[in-house]
Design a protein that fits this description.
Blueprint (H helix, E strand, L loop, with lengths): L2 H29 L2 H19 L5 H53 L2 H25 L8 H14 L1 E2 L2 H7 L7 E3 L4 E3 H9 L4 E9 L2 E8 L5 E5 L4 E4 L2 H4 L10 H23 L5 H14 L4 H4 L22
Parallel strand pairs: 1-4, 3-7
Antiparallel strand pairs: 2-3, 4-5, 5-6, 6-7
Length: about 325
């Protein structure tokens, strides 16, 4: 064989080797796995050895890639494709969650709940003063609950705090109390007197619910007394402080805020899983990769390249790994 033909063969094998080396590098970067990086380094050492020494039999380099590199890259390309599919599924979920978070945040920002609570407290004070006058004068004037009940219609589903049935029943019990009553309202006598003394200055504290039944807790602005408005029966009574000890009467917050927090936490978890996805290899792949690295790192490895037997073809096991099941 002429010298120029040998040169062409050498150049072609080196060129093909560089392509294979580039593929191993790309896979190493993708998986970011220490053993795969070590494999890339060792493969580059072997390639450089033949590229720098033309007196070596370059066909041994070709044989090395056929017996080893091809099986390695075939396995990890399949694994890469499977992982990319998993990654994209998680990425889609992150985008869907993010869109929902944005939507819920915009909806929450559009609702001035704090301002509406202040307005509701003022409206309740006006309504109670009107009811007091009707009861005191035994008046048959018309009265509408519409302005008061619109608050729960607008905000209960998002803001009112759900409590157990027993707590709700105890909190809203008025049947055993001494009340003033007409066609519009039933109100504890002591409470009505207290309201009159304090000039009906009240503020909304929180809304409570159970099974679509609503109750609202109010404070007197000028005292520490609290009372309850039961929406369904249109009745009022002092808050039973003993019962209230076991109930959260803090300011209401949007349940959308809880949903947003949950979605943000889910996205954080998905991002963590995405970060770990590429470096996490199935156990059988880990084992084959470790064996492969040990094999090509052996001192006598290059001498063994011509012995095509089971020992030097350990990467055939890679072809039997079912990537789709990982």
């Amino acid at each position: 064989m002429r010298m120029d033909e040998l040169e062409d063969i050498y150049a072609q094998i080196i060129k093909e080797s560089q392509k294979r080396l580039l593929m191993v590098k790309m896979l190493s970067n993708f998986f970011n796995h220490k053993d795969l990086f070590a494999v890339y380094v060792r493969t580059k050492v072997i390639h450089n050895l033949f590229e720098a020494n033309k007196d070596l039999d370059v066909h041994k380099l070709e044989l090395f890639h056929v017996q080893y590199t091809s099986s390695l890259t075939d396995l990890f390309q399949k694994l890469k494709k499977a992982k990319e599919q998993q990654y994209l599924l998680m990425e889609d979920e992150v985008h869907i969650n993010t869109d929902l978070i944005d939507k819920l945040q915009k909806e929450s920002e559009q609702r001035n709940f704090i301002g509406e609570c202040r307005s509701h407290g003022r409206q309740m004070g006006v309504a109670l003063k009107q009811l007091y006058t009707m009861l005191a004068e035994n008046s048959q004037a018309m009265f509408s609950w519409n302005d008061i009940t619109q608050f729960s219609v607008k905000f209960a589903s998002e803001y009112y705090r759900e409590i157990p049935e027993a707590d709700f029943a105890e909190l809203t019990a008025v049947t055993d109390k001494n009340v003033y009553q007409n066609n519009y309202v039933a109100i504890e006598r002591k409470l009505l007197g207290r309201l009159n003394i304090l000039n009906f200055r009240v503020k909304f504290v929180c809304g409570l619910s159970h099974n679509n039944q609503y109750a609202e807790v109010f404070d007197f602005i000028d005292s520490n007394d609290r009372f309850v408005f039961i929406n369904g029966s249109k009745s009022f009574c002092f808050l039973n402080e003993e019962v209230a000890k076991g109930i959260d009467l803090s300011k209401n917050t949007s349940n959308k805020a809880d949903i947003i927090t949950g979605l943000q936490h889910k996205n954080d978890m998905l991002r963590d899983r995405q970060a770990a996805l590429k470096t996490a290899l199935p156990q059988d792949v880990e084992a084959v990769l470790a064996t492969y690295l040990e094999k090509i790192s052996g001192v006598d490895f290059l001498e063994e390249l011509q012995n095509v037997d089971e020992q030097t073809n350990i990467l055939r096991a890679m072809l039997n790994i079912n990537i789709n099941s990982k």
